[in-house]
Design goal:
The protein is α/β, with parallel strands linked by helices. It has one domain: Alpha-Beta Complex (2-enoyl-CoA Hydratase, Chain A, domain 1). The chain contains eleven helices and nine strands. β2, α1 and β3 form a beta-alpha-beta unit. The model has no long low-confidence stretch (mean pLDDT 97). It binds coenzyme A. The site of coenzyme A (COA) has 14 residues, from α2 and β5.
């Protein structure tokens, strides 16, 4: 039976592979629920010392499933997507990502919570929230200005235009750029190096680097979520999603 997520643990490394390539690895509500479950289980399971997210060599993720946004928008902060975001922020062990091809919306914002990110030279990051009549999520409105500086973050979030792997490397969003066919294997090799290190030291080091900001991240996820939820039901988002489904350009002249 086909599974949209493949979850595999070997040698201390749990790998979550996005496997909905025919829909560009866009995330459905069911996938968010499964991702949260996988993160919670991996954090508790002694067999997992390191977690890796990876996609296909052609696509990491096209972000939220737009049909889901139209037909099944998240109802409140207990919606599956917000549970996933809180699980990402709370994950205590090292978390890596290998990114090839498009990484749209949450496909990029989830990387802000990873500890190490490796990109294929075909990786294209984009945060098209404004172009969809939405606003940032996953605390990206807090993290991106911190990581990129305000003006580069504003360019990424207001214009929403894709930027490629080399630009992401320059601003510190990724650790290394590789040929796409080598990216997943390299991330696995790095994950195995980490998995061989003392787990308590890894967890303590990550906690010490991140703990000061955790309450602010959760607070921002909540604030963004409230605005996102309102905008999601607004006319601009409806027009953007309908245009995507109908394969036409959106018309925001009335929005
Ligand atoms: N939600 C639902 N379906 C999606 C999707 C998404 N986010 N992204 C892609 N798909 C589907 C397309 O509708 C298409 O389905 P079809 O074959 O049934 O027509 C299929 O995946 C292939 O997508 P396509 O657009 O033809 O691929 P592409 O290689 O030309 O472009 C992307 C890839 C990722 C650049 C493009 O699909 C895209 O921009 N997707 C939307 C991204 C987005 O806005 N996400 C929301 C972020 S909040």
């Amino acid at each position: 039976m086909h599974q949209d997520l493949l979850i595999h643990t070997e040698a201390g490394v749990t790998t979550i592979t996005f496997n909905r390539v025919e829909k560009k690895n866009s995330f459905t509500e069911a996938m968010y629920a499964q991702l949260t479950q996988a993160l919670t289980a991996a954090d508790a399971d002694a067999a997992t010392r390191v977690l890796v997210f990876q996609g296909d060599v052609t696509v990491f993720s096209a972000g939220n499933d737009i049909g889901d946004f139209l037909n099944n928008p998240p109802a409140n902060e207990e919606a599956a997507v917000f549970q996933f975001l809180r699980a990402l922020v709370g994950f205590s062990k090292p978390m890596l990502a290998a990114v090839c091809g498009p990484a749209v919306g949450i496909g990029t914002t989830l990387l802000l919570h990873c500890d190490l990110v490796y990109a294929g030279d075909n990786a294209a990051f984009s945060l098209p929230f404004v172009n969809l009549g939405l606003c940032p999520e996953a605390a990206s409105s807090l993290l991106l200005p911190q990581m990129l500086g305000y003006h580069r973050a504003a360019e990424a979030l207001l214009l929403g235009e894709p930027f490629m792997a080399e630009a992401a490397l320059e601003v510190g969003l990724v650790n290394r750029v590789l040929p796409p066919t080598e990216c997943n294997a390299y991330a696995q090799a790095q994950a195995r190096k980490l998995a061989a290190k003392p787990l308590a030291s890894l967890v303590a080091t990550k906690r010490l680097m991140k703990q000061g900001q955790q309450p602010a991240l959760l607070e921002r996820i909540s604030q963004e979520g409230q605005t996102f939820g309102q905008l999601l039901r607004g006319p601009a988002a409806k027009e953007a999603f309908s245009a995507f489904m109908e394969k036409r350009r959106p018309n925001f002249s009335e929005c």
